[in-house]
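Q: Here's a chain of 566 amino acids. Please give me its 3D structure as tokens.
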Amino acid sequence: MELSSIMHSANKRYAYALDKDTFLIRIRTKKDDLSKVVLHYQDKYIPISRLDTRKEIEMVKYASDSISDYYEIEIHFHLVCLRYYFELIGDETYYFGNERFFKKPIDNIDYMFDLPQTLREEEMYIVPSWAKNKIVYQIFPSRFSSSEDVSEEIWYKAPMGHMDNIGGNLRGIINKLDHMKELGIDVIYMTPIFKSPSSHKYDIVDYYTIEPTFGSKEDLIELVDKAHSLGIRVVLDGVFNHTSRDFFAFKDIRENGEKSKYLDWYYIDSFPLIMEYGKRPNYKCFSYFGGMPKLREDNPNVRRYFIDVAKYWIKEAKIDGWRLDVADEIAHSFWREFRSEIKEEFPETLIIGEVWHYADDFLDGDEWDTVMNYDFFFAVRGLLKEERSTVTEFYQELSRIKGKVHYKVYPLLWNLLDSHDTERFYNGINYDKKKMKLAAAFQLLSPGMPLVYYGDEYGMHGGGDPDSRRGMYWDKKYQDLELYDWYRNLISVRKKYTGILDYIDVDVKTDDETGLLRIEKKDYVILYNTKAKEIFLDELKLKMELITGNISDGYMEGYSVFVYKK
């Protein structure tokens, strides 16, 4: 038994409250090293001689990746403090408690892990009740839809440049709400809509003013109201890591230099400021782009300003959440304060961090609710675009996500195939429609919040940023209606047969030779053929309640999905 691979700490990442009197305890072990893990637990303060409160329960292996197995168990109790330890059963048996291993069962509570009930319940991870498994639609406002007449030559320009302005606006989005409702969208996420000189609006000049070319505050309010009437939520993009150089605070520094009263709002190395294109700025920026100077979030005045901005738009426009740009480069202390104030007044507001790597330190329940799940993005690309992963490795990558992320965060992960920051997935697979449909199936038939980038449902083309931000395909001659029907059908299946999204995979089989991935849920079986060659399966010749997919005499087509009810 590989004891050095055992990972558990008596903290809120491994032992936490799900609800009052309900707790989840987890442990990580070396892959295939153990045959069973048993949790032993008892009341800390009641002596066994007075009342035997000892209990034991076998834990469930809920995920396995390439190197680790992950076990968990949900238990219920009502007491002051719990003490517990693990029985690890493999080629030999060890007992693990309070960071120590023993060869005999632990009978001294001082050598057990500690779980104070009230503390864990007070720090419980509370997420918006409405968000679980909802479908998100990302819109790039300047390129999505315009309420004005725009020539085909301008709107469908390709490739698209960084500064191209083709006239998209908020009223154009209002006019297309029916499209999103028909598709089955639950949440609209818009990239920044505040006053800015660029097409992308990530260099904001005024956080209290809607970009004039997009419309007005009244347009945003109308958009949110009408979306809500259709059952659709609205999330805005919060750019709180950096500003434009024309933002009032940085503008004052430009004008007054070392005498500026806003000097401590930014990270200025020296004067005069170096702002010429092609030269490295002498102040911190987003990346090294001088047009986006980085803010000092350790400054209480900066914190106050941006928390007030966030609260203002929740109050004024009734928005439902903030997606936070470059969020992993901002101090934890800022996000704790941000969450505390937002949730105190608006507890159902969804807070999403942009991060391209594993972000457990931001997902302890006191900062963000969830993240843009780029681990999912890399997994699907590794399988279908780069073809670097076998189907076993692909499933292990997805399992690693499940193994590590908080139980309440998992169904809120924003699972994406592409975004405004990446090339279109369709472009990356050379417009292979079968692969695109399979990728969409992975996205839409998995737990979490699938993030559909505008136009993917119509087979939009586009290379890397900025070409991934082309004008939306509204003219039918550009639209792939077969793909649209595929997206709409999968979304309908997802919503009708919710058991497909069950947290637990009852049984999983992978075959790297054929490319088969078979995921069995409690009531459903999902079959993915991840290779171009068709697969013959005996089970497909049986009579079953078909949910989606096509079969012919027991054969699955290449790059296809098949779902049936058990």
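Q: Can you summarize the key feature?
A: The mean pLDDT is 96.
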